């Protein structure tokens, strides 16, 4: 197979999506005249999407147009595209989609996976860094019962930046907070209308001069993997390598897995795991 000719594939994709629909599926009245081709007419797609018929024709003929994100959104709605089809449409048009599906706030089936990954400390968070699920080893690493925390405080950033009991959790607090805040800034830019996320940032920056100083640096970095220098409240220092995974079905969520970075740290994690049994 040759490489994708995006203009031609966009044209063919729009035609096939139009031809699979009936007027009834998009709340248009059925016409008495016999249709010569299956599906909707181009005029009907144009009406539904709020664009001209000529524009739809040129798109379906592959005449080199590059639709804007707004036009793509309108076409996706008019053609009743699924989330996967919508993403495909934007990829073909070489545009970045606006966020469409609301972020998942529940752990769902991933809660079982978090438990199955024991004894590796594991948790599931959303784009606001709220902790949606965790296994006993992760709670023990924090040295607290996460289930007893008020939901607004069951947040990795709030815990590590404002919780008094975790002031010494990071052995290199400056670096750890700077990396976390850079990640937070990236999420904030990607979710500008998330009021709860904005309120969290306000709480963090007004509640800590340290956080306010680092936030003002405007560092941006999405942390997919790395290393953390930690200090357990009773077991002592340890170093963990972390990996962040984004599930395909819920990309707004992140699965975070800790592993020991050296034999001494493995001993600390083993001791924590024994306390959880």
TrEMBL record:
InterPro entries in alphabetical order: Cro/C1-type_HTH (IPR001387), Lambda_DNA-bd_dom_sf (IPR010982), MLTR_LBD (IPR041413)
Domain HTH cro/C1-type: 32-86
Highest rank taxon of the organism: Bacteria
SUPFAM superfamilies per the UniProt record, alphabetical: lambda repressor-like DNA-binding domains
PROSITE patterns (UniProt xref): HTH_CROC1 (PS50943)
Protein name: Helix-turn-helix domain-containing protein
